[in-house]
């Protein structure tokens, strides 16, 4: 099975649909919700840069190294962010979920948890992954907390791993969920979403 074959993943709170150039305007509005590009530890496109970021992700998809999604709020129908499958290794049945951001107004609303449930369910239940990885900036405490709340374990820190656009060196924190851990993590995600009335 092609790990990166485009597909739509549908939940109660959010739908993840294959990224398209036509998503640009809605994603610009989502990024403006909280002025997310101003956060030094994220890579959310600044005003006027969304089209180029969509083109970049679609080029990586065409090259076979990324499957990008636009996240759409199920109730309002508005676009609220982006996420991707990336760095897929079909031979070893591994991939990374990353390049994720969500509009500030939906933080802690359950949309991110459900997005991860949809992505992890497909990765483990359909693609039969052995492990799914997450990476984030050492300084991004919000992202690190969200990944830990998913039930992922921290594998380590890659120090001075990436040169950021401003020239600073980024330390990258690496987390993963193993296939054998997935049933318990899935049950906990479903419990959390049910507690919000989203299950």
From TrEMBL:
A Pfam family that the UniProt record links to this protein: Acetyltransf_3
GO MF annotation list: acyltransferase activity, transferring groups other than amino-acyl groups
N-acetyltransferase domain segment(s): 14-153
Lineage: superkingdom: Bacteria
Keywords: Transferase
InterPro entries on file: Acyl_CoA_acyltransferase (IPR016181), GNAT_dom (IPR000182)
Protein name: N-acetyltransferase
Protein source organism: Nakamurella antarctica
Phylogenetic lineage: Bacteria, Bacillati, Actinomycetota, Actinomycetes, Nakamurellales
